Amino acid sequence: MNNTIYLDNAATTPLRKEVLDEMMPYLTDYYGNASSIYKIGLASRTAIDSARERVANVLGCMPKEIYFTSCGSESDNWAIKGYAMASLKKGNHIITSKIEHHAVLHTCQYLEKNGFEVTYLPVDETGMISLEDLKNAIRPTTTLITIMYANNEIGTIQPIKEIAKIAHENGIVFHTDAVQAVGSIKVDVKELDVDMLSLSAHKFNGPKGIGALYIKRGVYPHNFMHGGAQESGKRAGTENTANIVGLAKALELATENLDEKVKKLSELRDYIIDKIQSDIPHCRLNGHRDMRLPGNVNFSFEFIEGESLLLMLSMNDIAASSGSACTSGSLDPSHVLLSIGLPHELAHGSLRVSLGYQNTKEDADKLLQVLPGIVQRLRDMSPLYEN
Asked: CB atoms < 10 A from the CB of 194, how many?
């Protein structure tokens, strides 16, 4: 594994040693239940309270507005189901987009089966929603808008501040799935004026199994987990102290000197994009060229199949993806790529490269060295290419 060039950071990221070091005492010496009043329990409570303050400091909010969850998917479920049920007397209409993560799409589809109405906004060829489409979709019964900050497959960044403004002008609560954005670009919830925001630690070199939901003061979604008084009575379950501490440390590390990191990754991203476009014919860059996550590269290659491409990259000790990690076992093409207008056969031939803080130009050069030959080899075996 040490020889593998890891280029799938949108799926998950390696745990940083500094994060593990800060977590370890709460897996060994300070293992007490944070709800207990003896010393090792109070040590856990103190660590959780400190972590909440640290996360709030990065996001620009109050500690009491941060609630720890098990992951980004739980945060999305809680925000959407919780607020939909809490505001049912006001209306039953939700607005989202066609390119959301399945944690949002499947949650909305569940609500549709239970009497709610959902509008799925289309996107253009770059993955952007239209603000005019959003305005036109609003009804008197609309209570919630949920639009992702940045897409996990094609990296397109949505105009979140403008969406929040439209929502609030119409008395509507706005949630954003910021799982891909937090730790990659600056996220200030007050500046954005969002009402709820989801994040997940393993996307910014923290541990798996821990996320958070920002809920603005005055917004009251119904509880998603019942059974205890943890998280100010909002989310039951014994707190995962070590992972909570790990989330806070990872977030601090990810966001220190953030402008410098964004510059580095953006330059590396653009280097890869430019070389692929110049060296490999019959390819298409997916996503917005400028409003894009710093580490995201997504291409579709004509006349090949994405899974074969990934297997051959793996044989060269390069780990990448053909789309969302959550759907890697599916034979269906990416709903995101179909939504931006790609035909099925082109959507099947996609490659997502997602860079992390640990990646170097040497990593990029290795990819760029082997990728053209792999694409050509696969095309040589394709009757479509031959014709």
From this structure: 27
b/e per residue 324-352 (b: at least 16 CB within 10 A): beebeeeeebbbbbbbbebeeebbbbbbb
pTM metric for this prediction: 0.97
How many residues does the structure list for the chain? 387
Smallest CA-to-CA distance from 203 within 355, 58, 320, 59 is with 355
- Quote the CA–CA distance of 211 and 252 in Å, as a whole number: 15
- Tell me the pLDDT tens digit for each residue of 218-255: 999 999 999 999 999 999 999 999 999 999 999 999 99
* Alpha-helix runs per DSSP H in 138-234: 160-169, 189-192, 230-233
CA dist 384 and 387 (Å) reads: 5
Alpha helices in the chain (DSSP H): 17-23, 39-59, 72-86, 102-112, 131-137, 160-169, 189-192, 230-233, 241-255, 258-279, 306-315, 335-339, 344-347, 361-380, 383-386
Beta-bridge mates of residue 67: 213
**Which residues are catalytically annotated?**
326
* Chain position carrying tokens 């953030």: 258
